[in-house]
Write a structure and sequence with these properties.
15% strand; five-stranded mixed sheet; Ubiquitin-like (UB roll); 152 residues; alpha+beta; 2 domains; 38% helix; DNA polymerase, domain 1
């Protein structure tokens, strides 16, 4: 079946199976930042935004995205680049597998909250697993990134 959606600002028409997950649709069409991790919505690496809301694409049927706006990390290149710099400064990007999902969660947090406190940031990262960093360096990087945004 054919579905039409907007991905990162561009209109797309995809031919999908009725049981196809959005993760598979996006990856098969070149959106490689959307990654497969656990397939149980527990790790956060498949995170995308659908109409501005965080969604685990491994459990979101592609047909549900019909007519909606989907954002992957490719759709926020400047923001992802700035956050990546902070991750590098803090040593928070060791393997980078989880970074795209985290970047989208931080983007969503920044869009809904001004000057979030540490607990709000931690809450926004709930559901993102990282085996490399222990989360402390990620938290420092995100705080620095958000503080930089306050100065713009």
């Amino acid at each position: 079946m054919k579905i039409e959606l907007t991905v990162n600002g561009g209109r797309e028409i995809f031919d999908v199976a009725p049981d196809e997950m959005l993760l598979d649709t996006l990856r098969s069409h070149g959106f490689k930042s959307v990654r497969r991790g656990c397939d149980t919505t527990s790790c956060g690496v498949c995170t995308v935004l659908v109409d501005g809301l965080l969604v685990p694409s491994c459990s979101y049927l592609s047909v549900r995205a019909e007519g909606k706006h989907v954002t992957t990390v490719e759709g926020i290149p400047e923001e992802a680049s700035k956050l990546s710099e902070h991750f590098g400064d803090e040593g928070a990007d060791q393997c980078g597998f989880c970074n795209a999902g985290i970047a989208l969660s931080v983007h969503a947090l920044k869009n809904r909250t001004t000057s979030p406190d540490e607990d709000t940031i931690k809450d926004a990262l709930t559901g993102h697993l990282c085996r490399c960093t222990g989360y402390v360096s990620q938290l420092k990087a995100i705080k620095a990134y958000l503080k930089e945004g306050d100065n713009e």
